[in-house]
């Protein structure tokens, strides 16, 4: 039985062009996937934020206006806030507005007939103040963590390494309000060098009184540097004990070059993630620090909104914090991908 013959295209028939192979762009593909996942995560977080704030007992308009509010005024405020609409419709309206930069209107400001009721405008100033504080702390966090971690790693097992390990462990175990209180006692009460609070005038910015930023920044860095430097130390010790570093030593490379070209670069992949976690901590710890030092930032605004039952403002601030967490995670994963070349061939 003869084998079947393959039937090809008829003579003179046009030949379909071959499909060109898809060009792989792992970094771009990875970034697109992470952004899409981040958007989905943010939408899920917005649902939880909206449901949690609306699940609180009591009528928001009644709480804001008080017991003496007339039914007409109560109904007018409920209508202005959209409380008379279905929950799903209110959520969709709030989310669409947030995507366009409109976080709704403050119930407290509306009840007080304030000239400005937009949540986006009300939190713009505190958000700028917190951004300045967090940015200064984040800029100082990376070099300090690298310096302490590398110093401890190259002296692993020596007395200086043990001292640094105990100090960072102690600082990492202290809550922010305890560390901040200790700093106030030492630098303000005992030495009288720094102010215990960071009060700002209506037209002032944090940079107008930079001395008021010192204690809040030190409080944030105390815990963050302790955590990140220990991660840098552990990662660099593993890198310096790896096989390719041993091979580099056998080839006669200088120890200084081995430490910083091979050891530090190899440990950066894990260090970047620890930096991202520490920067995320800055956004969470900033709420406690701002309350402790009376710093007029987004943390103080959030606490005041919770105390006044300003639900719309709480929703807006919580959504901004969630977005900041997601953006930091995406940037950290991207930096790891760029620092470790072998990951670019199979980014997931």
CATH class of the largest domain: Mainly Alpha
In total, the number of domains comes to 2
- Nearest-integer average pLDDT: 79
Q: How far is it from the N-terminal to the C-terminal residue, by CA?
A: 50 Å
Helix share bin: 55-70%
CATH topology of the largest domain: MetI-like fold
The main sheet comes to: none
List the helices and strands in order.
Answer: HHHHHHHHHHHHHH
Low-confidence stretches: none
Number of helices: 14
Class inferred from helices and paired strands = mainly alpha
- How would you describe the shape? globular
Strand proportion, as a percent range, falls in under 5%
Q: What is the total tally of β strands?
A: 0
CATH architecture tag of the largest domain? Orthogonal Bundle
Describe this structure in words.
The mean pLDDT is 79. The chain folds into 2 domains: 26-121, no CATH class; 124-308, MetI-like fold. It has helices at residues 26-54, 60-65, 71-81, 87-99, 107-111, 119-122, 124-154, 159-173, 176-190, 214-240, 243-250, 255-292, 298-307, 311-339. Helix 1 (26-54) runs antiparallel to helix 14 (311-339), helix 11 crosses helix 12 and helix 12 (255-292) runs antiparallel to helix 14 (311-339). The chain is built from 14 helices and no strands. The chain is mostly helical and 348 residues long.
Q: What is the element layout, followed by pairings?
A:
Blueprint (H helix, E strand, L loop, with lengths): L25 H29 L5 H6 L5 H11 L5 H13 L7 H5 L7 H4 L1 H31 L4 H15 L2 H15 L23 H27 L2 H8 L4 H38 L5 H10 L3 H29 L9
